Task: structure prediction
Amino acid sequence: DTAVLLTGKFNNGIIKLLMFSTEGNYYDQAREYKKALAAYHMAYQYADSNNNTYLKAEAADNLAAIYYKQKNYSEATLYATEANRISLSVNHIKVAASTFNTLKNTAEAKGEYKTALQYANQYKIYADSATNEDTQKTTLSLESKYQSQKKENEIAELKIINAEKELSAVKRNRLLLMGGISAAAIMLLLGLMYRN
Result:
């Protein structure tokens, strides 16, 4: 609801584009497909006017999915084909996988089973690639966190070692000081006793 209220208050095209996408997603989840289509069309137009092909592919993919849900297969195919073309050109693997899936579903709904099979094979390839990409990102993130934690632990251990060394140096200095004071006191006493 906030996105709906705020969409008119921002002048930045990218922010508006993201807000329209969020609004479309909201209405899609609420199954209000006409409102979702309107929001996704606005996102598509803003992406196009800002020459943001990456987000234009996402907006076209979202439009294709909504048209498919409404059983408007010709529009679903049109936007899925456009999103697929753009996503392949900018290497947006998730959108490519999603659009191949939408194209497969629309071809199957039209009874074009040979075409549906071809799209299904492409979907599998790109879905696996998207999963592998996500897995690699997750692995790299976990590796980075592990290395960071490891360095933090090493720093903590070095601080402990330094603190122990400082403590032993302070103890040693105190012992030397006490030994020096004791030796000076004994010398003073011996000096006083020798005079008498």
Summary: The chain has seven helices and no strands.
